[in-house]
Amino acid sequence: MANHCWNWSCFTGDRADLEKLIANVNKAMELNAENSGLLWYGTYSVALGLPPWQEGDPEYDVYLRYGSKWFDVDIDDNKDHVNLIGSSAWSPMCEFFRKLSAVYNLNVEAEYEEPGMDFGGFFSAEVGEVTNDKQLSYYQYRVLSDGTDSILEGIEDADYDSLEDAIEHFKDLQEVMDRKQWEEFKSELAGVVTTPQTNDHDKI
Questions:
Q1: What stretch of H or E contains 48?
Q2: From CA 62, how far away is CA 84, in angstroms rounded?
Q3: Where does the pLDDT of residue 156 fall: very low under 50, low under 70, confident under 90, or very high at 90 and above?
Q4: pLDDT, position 56
Q5: What does the alpha-carbon distance between residue 81 and residue 196 come to, in Å, rounded to a whole number?
Q6: Does the model's pTM come out above 0.85?
Q7: Cβ proximity of 82 and 76 under 8 Å
Q8: Which residues are registered as beta bridge partners of 109?
Q9: pLDDT in tens, 115-127
C-alpha cells in the first residue's frame, strides 16, 4: 500500500530569515540522526524554534497540526531561496510549510503528489497567510505541472481494453483542459495505448 507523498517547497525572503530556517530544520534533523535525520511529530516544533515534544506533553492530531507524522526532508540552499524537498506519510506538508512561513517571515510555494492515492496539488503562503491551496487528482496535477507529455510517456504501451476505456480513465482531465487540448490529448493517447490482441483460439 502506497503511503509516500512527495513534497517540493521553495522559501523566499531575507537571507537572515532563510538562515534561521536552515539552522532550526538542521537542529530538528540532528535530534533523529539515528533515523537519517527524519523529521517527525516529536521534532517538528524544533524546526519552528520551539522545544521538542516530550512524553507527557499534551497529545495532538499531527496530521491536522503539521500535515503528516513524518517528513524525510532534504535541504537545498540556493542563497536567495531554500528548497525543502522529500516524502511524507500519506498527506502533504502544507500546514508545516505554512507554519515555517509564519515563524520565519518567509513566502513559500509548494507542490505535492501521491499517484498511489490519486492526488497532487499546489500550495502557497505569504508570511503564514495561505494564498493558494489547490488539491487535484494526480493526473490533473501532472497536466498543470508538466503538461501532457509526462502522462503519455508514463503510460507508453499501456494496456486498456479499448481506446474508449483509456479516455474514460483520464476523463477528469477535461476539467483542467480547454476543448482543443482535450481533443489533442485524446489523439495522442490513441498513439500510445495498446489493446489486447485476439486470435481464433480466443473465440472458442
A1: none
A2: 19
A3: low
A4: 82
A5: 50
A6: yes
A7: yes
A8: 10, 124
A9: 999 999 999 999 9
Task: Render the burial of 111-138: b for 16+ CB within 10 Å, e for the rest.
Answer: bbbbbeeebbbbbbbbebeeeeeeebbb
Q: Where would I find the H helices in the chain?
A: 15-30, 44-47, 62-65, 94-103, 138-146, 149-154, 163-169, 179-192
195 and 159 Cβ atoms separated by less than 8 Å: yes
Concatenated DSSP letters for 62-117?
HHHHTSSSEEEEEEEE-SSEEEEEEEEESS--HHHHHHHHHHTT-EEEEEEEEGGG
Q: Which residue has the cell 538542521?
A: 26
In angstroms, rounded to a whole number, what is the distance separating the alpha carbons of residues 48 and 45?
Answer: 5
Please count the residues of the chain.
Answer: 204
Instruction: For strands 4-12 and 107-114, give the pairing.
Output: antiparallel
18 within 8 A of 105, measured Cβ to Cβ: no
